[in-house]
């Protein structure tokens, strides 16, 4: 009878070890796969001020109540649509006026601002933007640091 208990104990032990190995390796593989989804590794603890970048003189505030004349010119290829969300954040959509470009959407938490980067104003006309490839936006926190989203 003792040998039956010993064999039963060994079988249970093997099953437990098997489950640990299978689920432990599965968990490890999931962690490895998740880390490989993004080939670009970034250090989110490093904060960069927008004013310290090479684009500092090419940015225009577009999340304010009104746009100044330079911001209007820079965003001439877009219609800007602002929507206040129930949680106090702001949804801003840059609707492309040209079918050659895609709409851009941003959600700003309270205190954040959206700046439009226009590398070359020379391609903008009063009726639109001739080269949409140089246009993008960046979210900045209340202290002027770029927000990684």
Question: What is the helix tally?
Answer: 2
Distance between the termini: 65 Å
Which ranges are low-confidence, i.e. pLDDT below 50, for 5 or more consecutive residues? 25-42
Strand order of the largest sheet: 1-5-8
Shape: elongated
Largest sheet: 3 strands, antiparallel
- Average pLDDT taken over every residue: 75
* Computed CA radius of gyration, to the nearest angstrom: 27 Å
> What's the number of extended β-strand segments?
8
Secondary-structure map:
Blueprint: H1 2-36, E1 59-61, H2 69-74, E2 78-84, E3 90-96, E4 104-108, E5 113-118, E6 124-125, E7 128-129, E8 135-140
Antiparallel strand pairs: 1-5, 2-3, 3-4, 5-8, 6-7
Describe the protein:
This protein has 149 residues and is an alpha+beta fold. The chain has two domains: 1-41; 50-140, no CATH class. Helices cover 28% and strands 26% of the residues. The protein has helices at residues 2-36, 69-74; strands at 59-61, 78-84, 90-96, 104-108, 113-118, 124-125, 128-129, 135-140. The chain has a three-stranded antiparallel sheet. A three-stranded antiparallel sheet has the order 2-3-4, with no helix packed on it.
Question: How would you sum up this structure in a few lines?
Answer:
The protein is of the alpha+beta class. The chain has 2 helices and 8 strands.
